[in-house]
Design brief:
Elements lengths: L12 H6 L4 E9 L6 E5 L2 H4 L6 E5 L7 E2 H14 L18 H14 L8
Antiparallel strand pairs: 1-2, 1-3, 1-4
Helix pairs in contact: 3-4
Length: 122
């Protein structure tokens, strides 16, 4: 039995998506009546951020359903890049040094445009 490893420096976007582990929703979070200031992915965002904590969530995948986890990471990275300095996300969901980074962000940006959320990237 062989153990196959994937080199993150050369792996293609398609290969990376194909080996996603599970699915996830993409959400925007805000506190009170403020504009969204954070994007995240989760199998269950409602459990993660209870209303009782004062958070409001906008589920971006409400119409499309959950995405493959690495597709969700692509969407998360696209808006993190677009809102750098505005959103509180401080870590990248995808390492910019990976060969697939540009393809992943492009896929995420296209997802926003195709699903009526393109204005969020401005």
């Amino acid at each position: 039995m062989s153990c196959e490893t994937t080199d993150p420096k050369t792996e293609s976007f398609e290969s990376w998506v194909a080996r996603s582990r599970g699915e996830a929703d993409v959400y925007l979070r805000n506190v009170g009546k403020n504009d969204p200031n954070y994007v995240g992915i989760s199998k269950n965002p409602w459990q993660r951020y209870a209303d009782s904590l004062g958070y409001k969530l906008d589920l971006l995948t409400n119409e499309t359903g959950q995405l493959l986890r690495n597709e969700a990471r692509s969407v998360e990275q696209a808006i993190t890049d677009a809102k750098r300095g505005i959103f509180k996300n401080v870590e990248n969901s995808i390492d910019p040094g990976r060969a697939l980074y540009k393809d992943a962000v492009s896929w995420g940006r296209n997802w926003f445009m195709d699903n009526g959320w393109g204005h969020l990237l401005e």
